[in-house]
Amino acid sequence: MKLGVIDVGGGVRGSYGAGVFDFCMDRGIDFDYGIGVSAGSANFVSYMAGQRGRNYRFYTEYTFRPQYMGLGNFIRTRNFIGLDYIYTDLSASWGEDPLDFDLVLKSGKEFWVVATNAETGEPIYFDGCKEMSQDDYGAIKGSCCVPVVNQPYMVNGIPCYDGGISDPVPLKKAFEDGCDHVVLVLTRPRDDYRTAKKDIRMARFMRKYPKSRERMATRSLVYNEGLDLAKELEAEGKVTIIAPADISGMKTLTKDRDAIARLYSDGYEDAKVLEEFI
To answer: Does residue 277 have a pLDDT over 80?
Structure first.
């Protein structure tokens, strides 16, 4: 059976997925295939490298540094989130907390990173093991590029935004690629459907990229359709949903160390359902 996993990301709420993957590493749960959306791609690549606890450090320590994200970044560079700081200064081989990309390649897992083409509004699926290399994690930077608070990140000459705009729950991609069963890691409660209000408000500021603006305005519909599909496939035994029972009001960029750590612990505990399944 080809076992896949999708981590939908969600900014600092991604600490929930970090807990899930650390549990999987502790218990030897092995996925053949993974898709990461936004922060979910960073979670999965550390799992591929077998670097337990690495994602937890990013969420609970580095997030609170001004270079990671903050108003100072935005004033200086027009980018609230320091993508180059996170995925180069910290993650490169010379960085403070390097990703062992050699082990990523040796893992033999199939890995896809979802981003959004800012010009067309369409999803881009980067083959993580082919499009990235040691110290070059542009695909993840593009996938994590939050509109409005960041300028599009250029990947292979393409301006990219967060993959959650165009394909927030990429189940169809996973099954088209031959997965027999998919573990879906959400960072909202399983019955928490998106409302359009915030997405429409953010879309108003995306005048330079009208196609992405349209995608942003309708993102809630796409997410909610993906969630409905996940529940249908779960009833058919093809999907296992792991989702937090409560996120305590956590938003994408909420700097609350206790809440972040709690979500990580919840993810670790909730992942125990996988032992029965495996």
So the answer is: no
Give dist(CA 25, CA 56) in Å, integer: 13
Cβ proximity of 2 and 33 under 8 Å: yes
pLDDT in tens, 83-123: 999 999 999 999 999 999 999 999 999 999 999 999 999 99
Rounded Cα distance between 262 and 265, Å, is: 5
Q: Where are the beta strands (DSSP E) in 104-167?
A: 110-117, 123-127, 153-155, 158-162
The pTM of the full predicted model, rounded to 2 decimals, is 0.97
Inter-CA distances, 227 with 102, 176, 241, Å: 34, 17, 10
* Whether 100 contacts 106, CB under 8 Å: no
Instruction: Assign 3-state DSSP to the chain and report helix, strand, coil percentages, each to 5.
Output: 45, 15, 40
**What does the block give as tokens for 188?**
């909202």
CA dist 32 → 132, 200, 265 (Å): 19, 37, 25
Q: 266 by DSSP, 3-state: which?
A: helix
- Residue 4: DSSP 8-state: E
The pLDDT-based confidence of 22 (bands split at 50, 70, 90) is very high
- Tell me how crowded residue 156 is: count the other CB atoms within 10 A of its CB: 11
Q: How many CB atoms lie within 10 A of CB 154?
A: 14
